[in-house]
Write a structure and sequence with these properties.
The protein is of the alpha/beta class. About 30% of the residues lie in helices and about 25% in strands. α7 (about 195-200) links the parallel β10 (about 190) and β11. The model has no long low-confidence stretch (mean pLDDT about 90).
């Protein structure tokens, strides 16, 4: 039996995940974001006060606005390949690309590099420990939670494989299912990380964590599960 794949991340990222899923041969793919991403007003620190720009989401590039150009002289530390590509497309030089998380990116950075960092972040972000570095955090966008959409609700009336890319999405999905009096039991959760899996909680038909926090690992699990391999 072929199971549908439900993608709930914000639209820009969701469409990229959908494209990858279809490239892998998955046909029953449903995109219905649980969040909408929007820019917020932000202060513009003087670029000369920093020697590195940290980006932990492509959303920062998409939603920071025209003032982002002022920071193009700063080398970019990108949390992953998608963020690095977005920064490169916007004319930035990406000097470091992480493979796991923002904290891993900082921990792996050589001690003498990027001592004064500007982090353009989301309004809701996890705290990071910069160690001996100075780091200024400036939120430039927000992800606003919305109700579970009609396509997602219809999909979840049958056994479904659900991709969860963040702990916040996991918690919001659980709350939405409770609000709609829908049971988690028929569904399979594929979590981006152990933190996301913990936020999803128990009660699902199955719950698996990607080997690495990236779409390739997540969709590798999805392909086997959706196609009954």
């Amino acid at each position: 039996m072929t199971l549908p794949l439900l993608i709930l991340r914000p639209l820009d990222g969701a469409l990229q995940t959908e494209q990858r899923a279809r490239y892998l041969g998955l046909q029953a793919v449903v995109v219905d974001p649980l969040f909408t991403v929007e820019p917020i007003p932000w202060s513009y620190p003087v670029p000369e006060d920093f020697d590195g720009l940290m980006l932990t989401s492509a959303n920062a590039v998409t939603h920071a606005g025209d003032c982002l150009k002022s920071y193009r002289a700063l080398p970019v530390l990108a949390v992953g390949r998608a963020t690095a590509q977005a920064a490169a497309n916007a004319g930035f030089h990406v000097s470091e690309t992480g493979t796991s998380s923002g904290q891993q990116l900082l921990d792996d950075l050589q001690a003498d590099r990027c001592r004064r960092l500007l982090w353009l972040a989301g309004e809701q972000h996890s705290a990071l420990d910069p160690g001996e570095r100075e780091m200024t955090v400036v939120p430039v966008y927000r992800s606003r939670a919305i109700a579970l959409g009609e396509k997602a609700v219809a999909c979840l009336k049958q056994e479904t494989v659900v991709l969860l890319h963040s702990a916040r999405a996991a918690r919001h999905l659980v709350a939405e299912l409770e609000r709609l009096h829908m049971e988690p039991g028929p569904h399979h959760i594929l979590a981006f990380s152990a933190k996301v899996a913990a936020a999803a909680g128990a009660g699902w038909k199955s719950l698996q964590v990607a080997d690495r926090p990236d779409d390739e690992s997540l969709l590798s699990l999805a392909t086997r599960l959706c196609q009954g391999e």
